[in-house]
Each structure stands twice: as C-alpha cells, then as structure tokens.
Amino acid sequence: MGLFDNLVGAFLKLTDPTPHYDGNRCLVEKYAVGGCDLCQQACPHEAVDLSHFRVEIDDTRCSGCGLCVQVCPGLALEYALGPVQESLTKGGGQLKCSRAPGGGQEVFCLGRLTPGLLAEAGSRLGKLTLARGDCANCKIGGPTVPERLENTIAEARRYYPELEVAVVQEALPGPKVGRRELFAALLEGTKRVAAEVVPDPPPELGLAEERDLPAELRLRKMAAARSQREVRWPAVAVSDACTLCPVCTNVCPTGAIRREREGEEYVLELEVSACTGCNACVASCPPQALEAVELGRAEALATEPLELLRGEPEWS
Question: Is the whole-model pTM more than 0.70?
Fold first, then answer.
C-alpha cells in the first residue's frame, strides 16, 4: 500500500465518527464476571448494542462524542489520540469543543478527552484550560459531558497529581481558525494517524519504547514519569488463597497479568503500566484471592514485571 493510500485510509479513520473497537480488550468478549455495559450507559444516543456479546455501534446514531471511549475500562474503544495531543500542544494547553464560542484549537467534543491525554499534556504544558459550549442543549455529547469530564480529570490526577484544569464556558483568547488552517491541521493529524498514534516518549524520561502498550497507557506512563508527587497507579495484590489458575490472565483486557511456568512452578506477574484498573480479574477470580490496590511511580515505570505469586499449584 502506497503513501497516498495510507493517507486516504488515515483520513477516513480520523473523520469517522465511530471509535475503533478492539474486541480483545472488551470485558464482554472476555467473559469477565459481571461483564460491562459502561459504554452503553454513557452513550447519549443509544448507539451502542451489546446484545451479541460484543460492542456494536450504530453509525447512524453515533455522534462521535467519545463518551463511550472515556468510560471503557479495558480501552476496547479508542480514537486516534495523536491529533488531539497536537491540538493541546499548539493551543499551549488551551482547547475548546466544536460548539464553544471563539477561536483556538478545538476537539469535536470534550468527551473525547481521556485521562492519558490530560495527564500528559498537563505534565508538559502546565495548567490546562478547556472551553465548553452549552452542553445541556448540545446534540453531540449532551448534558452529561461536564460531569464525565470532571471524572476524567480526577482519573488523570492518578497519573499526574500536579494536574491543573480549568473548565470554562467562555471564548478562549486568540484568533479564529480559518478554513485553510483547519484543513492544514486535519491533514497534519492524518499524517500522524498514518504513521503513529502517539509519539515515542522523549529520551529525557528514560522510558524504553512502549509500542506494545495501548496509546492511552503510553500517555499515562509519560505523565507519571514527569510527576514529582505520589502517583496512584491501579494494580492488584494476590493472597495465599490463589490457586494459580489462568482465569485472571484470561480476562485481563491488556495482558497486564501474566502466568508463566518455570519448571514445576507457576509465576503470576503484573506489568503495572499495562493495568487499567478495570478490576475484571478481581471480580472473576474463583477463590477471590485478588484485591485492587494502588502502586507508585517506581512500580509503574519499572522495566521488569512485578512478581505477584510463585508456587506449585495443588492441581498440577
């Protein structure tokens, strides 16, 4: 496939109102105990269907608000994050929704902002200012956007506690963006999607390449690396009741929990930076041996997985 085809495909992906769906990260498809219907609950237009044990989005109903992406615990739903990251950078930390007054850098709906985007941008740019329109009467995201945005900001502070965000309902300073500038920004975003969703972490952070992590987790990890305060990364702890069965590894949407065999023993490991805090493993563990905890910056940035338990199972 040539460069032109790549750019066309990326343009279509960038302008498609429906988010990309990865069934391997969906708790419904993973058959996690309790399942998950957060995306369906969050959708203001009843565009999400879970009746076939997977997420199906009706593109005739979907407005592209991104609220389903914000709440997905397994990161099974996602938009390209690179263009929004660029907009935050160009705006110097100022961003508005497409229905907010005035000019400046914009995102279609503030529902598309994720904890990783906010945490990483705040770690580089300082205080962020987000301008919203009249959400109560908006047909894109609707009246729940402000509350859900506050929840996203709170989640972002787990990874970058220093984060400061002001949500305003007024015009941002700066000139209006004309058609030429909008097209140039869209083309630049398309190039980014065609090449890479999120850039590699800067060398000064001392992080290895994170290509195996979802883009959202890479952004969270970048932010945590810059934090000088107590990071609260979601994780799990294991008690002696664990039988070393494979259930937790089977339901984990990001492969954060791994179970390896070493001789007659099995080792349960956790890649902390890959944990989203979905708690599917906690809910699904047959002997209820897992507990949700929080770990700090050192564990999140560790180059080696954290050993949770080692032993020879009774059933082996």
Answer: yes
Residue from 140, 180, 148, 237 nearest 130 by CA: 148
User: What one-character-per-residue DSSP string does 245-311 give?
Assistant: -SHHHHH-SS--EEEEEETTEEEEEE-GGG-----HHHHH-TT--EEEEEE-HHHHT-SSPEEEEEE
* Phi (first) and psi of residue 257, to 5 degrees: -95, 130
Determine contact, residues 119/163, Cβ cutoff 8 Å: yes
Residues 248 and 237: their CA atoms lie apart, in Å, by 12
Distances (CA, A) of 58 to 18, 49, 50, 70, 241: 8, 8, 11, 18, 44
| Per-position pLDDT tens, the chain of length 316 | 555 555 444 444 455 589 999 999 999 999 999 999 999 999 999 999 999 999 999 999 999 999 999 999 999 999 999 999 999 999 999 999 999 999 899 999 999 999 999 999 999 999 999 999 999 999 999 999 999 999 999 999 999 999 999 999 999 876 555 555 555 555 555 554 444 456 566 665 656 555 589 999 999 999 999 999 999 999 999 999 999 999 999 999 999 999 999 988 999 999 999 999 999 999 999 999 999 999 999 999 999 999 999 998 876 6
Distance CA 23, CA 197 (A): 19
Architecture of domain 233-311: 2-Layer Sandwich (3.30)
Residue extents of the structural domains in the chain: 3-225, 233-311
Q: How are beta strands 48-49 and 106-107 bridged, if at all?
A: unpaired
